[in-house]
């Protein structure tokens, strides 16, 4: 007795059905994967801009100015840690380029931003991921830090009968403070009035006699 067994394999109809299902799955998976990648890039940009802003604040506090670039040797690797594969300054939307960085020396503001999802530099006012660091903040903080130290040293000097006349740099040297105490946190030489015993910082605008002066 002869029997006829069906051979293993797929019919043309089964293959077509499988391909159709795979097509549907791929059609749904590709947009989902793109959305995940885009979300990762957005989060990366946010995190890196926070890190860069913090480093710029730290740099200004120490130097009373902003670095000339994000890759400056006294900034990158010193105040700003490189991150994995040294990519902390690489704009995830910039095709390998660094974040856009500019310093407004008139208003004392550093701006750093990402090109965004279109990959084009549309200017800071038109981009989503933008960070502004105002020199007035770390500069004022550093000024007060210096003034507190100076006041303590001056008080001891006066109590000991020391003279407090003359310009600030000369008086500063006579009370034993280093040259770094000549200037405020904005890089302007402090102003001393021996008659009233007041020490004045010109503030963020580098101009004495204006509203942002700091006096003790």
Question: Explain this structure to me?
Answer:
With 216 residues, this protein is an alpha+beta fold. It has 2 domains: 13-134, no CATH class; 139-215. It has 3 helices and 6 strands, in the order αβββααβββ. A 3-stranded antiparallel β-sheet has the order 1-2-3. Strands 4-5-6 form a 3-stranded antiparallel β-sheet, with helices on one face. The mean pLDDT is 88.
How is the secondary structure organized here?
Layout: H1 12-63, E1 100-104, E2 109-113, E3 130-134, H2 136-159, H3 168-174, E4 191-193, E5 198-201, E6 214-215
Antiparallel strand pairs: 1-2, 2-3, 4-5, 5-6
Helix pairs in contact: 1-2
Model regions low in confidence, pLDDT < 50 over at least 5 residues: none
What's the structural domain tally?
2
> What strand order characterises the main sheet?
1-2-3
Number of strands: 6
Q: Give me the secondary-structure category.
A: alpha+beta
SSE ordering: HEEEHHEEE
Query: What's the Cα radius of gyration?
Result: 31 Å
Per DSSP, what share of the residues sits in E-state strands of 2 or more residues?
Answer: 5-15%
Q: Give the distance, in angstroms, between the N- and C-terminal Cα atoms.
A: 115 Å
Q: Please tell me what the overall shape is.
A: rod-shaped
Question: What's the main sheet like?
Answer: 3 strands, antiparallel
Q: Helix content range of the residues, please? A: 25-40%
Mean pLDDT: 88
Number of H- or I-type helical stretches: 3
